[in-house]
Amino acid sequence: MHKTLRHITAAPALVALMIAAPALAQDTEFSPSSMTAFVAAGAGGGTDNFTRTVQPMLEERLGTNITVINLPSASGALAHQRTAQSEPNGESLDFASSTFITSRAAGQNPIGLEQLTPVARMQSDVLTLVVNPEKYETFEDFRAYAEANPGEVVIGGTHAASVDRMAFLALNEATGFDLNFIPYDNEGAASANLLSGNIDGMFNEISAIQGYMESGEMKPVLALADERLEAYPDMPTTVENGWEFTFGNERGVFINAETDPEIIAAIEAAFEDVFNSEDYQAYAAKANLDVRSGWLGSEDYRKVLEENLAFFEELLADQ
Amino acid sequence: MIEDLIGGFGVVLQPINLLILASAVLIGFVGGALPGISGVILVVILLPVTYSMEPTGAFMLLTAIYASSVFSGLITAILYRAPGTPEAVMTALDGYPMTQKGEAGKALGVGILSSAVGGMLGTVVLIVATPLLADIALQFSSPEFFALAVLGLTVVASLGGNLLLGLIGVCIGLVIASVGLDPLTGATRFTFGSLHLMSGINLIPVIIGLFAVSEVLKRSQEGDIHLATKKFTIRIFDWPIIRRIRMTVMRSSLLGTAIGILPGIGASTAAMVAYSETVRWSKDRKSFGKGAPEGVAAPEAANNAAAMGALVPLFALGIPGSGTTAIILGAFIVHGLTPGPTFMTGNSDLIYAVFVGLLIVNILILVFSRPFIAILSKLLDVPYSVLGPVIVICCIVGTYSVQNSMMDVWLMLGFGVAGFLLEKIGFPLVSIILGVVLGPIAESELRRSLAMTRGDPSVFWTRPISAILLAIAIALVVMTVVMPLLRRRKARKDALRDA
């Protein structure tokens, strides 16, 4: 059974926000003396960089001081837990990636959308199937080899509850290829094995493999998206092949679900202002995070997350 | 390359950059000396500070902090058996007994010199051979990592003391390491429903508990005695000692660099393997663990060399070789640099400035270490009834800071009590650390190798590097375990015949 995971375009969200958010934000003066940002990932990674980039921008807009605390344990579940158990006064935020939902689907994360409300999605990267061009020039080559050699093709990735593993499961299910998956401790180890030809492919964001693409040692051959990427018009997509799934790593912000909706709206508005600022867009461009627009407001982000969760749970149940 | 290097010197010798390097060394010293505050944490704390700096200065700062923190872990390891960083665990093995014998100055001198030589050799290799070595590092995949971990585990045979207890210790370490999520399937193991245990037991609470806290407990039982080493002078250039350790330092530096360039295998492993090799090459094996200068020289030369080696895959391939380099990789991205195979050619100015910076850092370590240790050693004048609790407080703060977890602090204190009790029966505590560090590598790489070949174990002996490493491991076990057994048997037979 195929499920559509299409990302809702930003337009309706923006329209909704233009009507709702400014009004609310003006009603509620939300400017606490201090705030805590829990990061559901280790220092130095994409989610941590995102948090620390946004931190001063948010401090300026809310007139507050923000302390950043990294809680990478248990795929970030501790960060979700600490946020969900915090005072519902809007002063504790949880900065998380799609791992929040994938680890929830895999049963590793006891905190769900009942305890945490999404505030905003700030980034939405497209996953691609990346191969070693010495082995496969195009996706057709990869496909021909995988179909002729069932069980022989190995895909590397990060841990078992990661977005890349979900992408692997979805691709296997939709295409009927018999691919194998090896989880490595981190992305670097998977990259090294792809460079040396020990594995056939991996799933990664284009932003993460720029250097290898320039040197011609890695090549993205399939975008897990519904439309071809503007910058890569020659790369086929899953949806155009008739495989109804799209994947990306998303990064956003969550808050204790019991928080006053007006406070949530005020924080959401601050994030939207950050997102539209020149500084933030410059960072997104520098880190190649602007392949497609990341912004989603609270309501729309929740819908996307709920759909994703159901899809991931179904994928894992079929295993 | 020569031009690039001269250009690098030109950049580094600017006053602002020299100031950056000097302050980085001091920050690294303080952080590395505090148990629990490792290079990783320092780099994380200073990362946001570097966002506003220009890239060259930023990366000189981060790499210099990394290098000097790996160095300064040895100070507290030697003086108080409280390894300041995980890399310095092996240093405590012979360094602390030297302090107890009243040779603290000598031990520190050996440690400082070996560190600086190891660090400098590692940097020279980094400058000369980064692209070449990176290609060799890529030859290492799961089967080779598994073989290397097995080789590392054979260190237990050269630790001296009771071999059976050592093996039990490794097994305890392996059990500790298996707590958490299964690295391949994500199934939970020994977590008892606790979220805190899901990501496993961190290495730092284990090390700090077993070594630092257990030692405080032991000394508290002995009453308030001052260390015999209240006053000591550090002699770095002590020629008779240098003649004695020079081969050890050279061998360990090369070994350390070689292990450091492998992605995922860090300086702690390098120190373990170098220590074991030194014992194996030594004519006087019995002296190890009781205060042999070679036992300080080997791990210190190796871990500093490995710290530099870990930068090879980072610069040449964009693949981090250790936890700290993974964070530096993140910093590259924030600065808008694109790590990867083309990074070196596109950013040679920055890279050579960092290289030259590291060379200078290793000289600064030699210069600054003596006054720094002189201040630290003033603490030895403080009665142990005051110093002991201060050490424990530092351990608690340091452990908490690793991942903001009280659970880690409780674990650390628990390991402290366990270490105290185990030492009463002469248990080699370091064998537990071996299991914790090398167990996860051995386990997951074994399973990945078999996943790669769909269950065919021949991959371990058909791939040449893995075959060689495993052969060395087997030879080591035969030499250190089986041969003495046979010899003892023969001796008994001879004795019977003579009688």
Broad structural category of chain A: alpha/beta
> Average pLDDT of chain B, to the nearest integer?
86
Spatial strand sequence of the major β-sheet of chain A: 2-1-3-10-4-11
- Principal-axis shape of chain A: globular
Work out the helix count of chain B.
22
Largest sheet of chain A: 6 strands, mixed
**Estimated helix fraction of chain B:** over 70%
Largest interface, with counts of residues having CB < 8 Å to the other chain, equals:
A-B, 51 and 52 residues
- From the alpha-carbon coordinates, what is the Rg of chain A to the nearest angstrom? 20 Å
| Number of structurally distinct domains of chain A | 2
Give the fraction of residues assigned to helices of chain A. Answer: 40-55%
Domain DUF112 (chain B): 18-434
InterPro entries (chain B): DUF112_TM
Keywords (chain B): Membrane, Transmembrane, Transmembrane helix
Pfam families (chain B): TctA
Properties at a glance:
heterodimer; A: 319 residues; alpha/beta; D-Maltodextrin-Binding Protein, domain 2; 2 domains; 11 helices; B: 499 residues; mainly alpha; two-stranded antiparallel ribbon; 22 helices; membrane (chain B); transmembrane (chain B); transmembrane helix (chain B); Tricarboxylate transport membrane protein TctA (chain B)
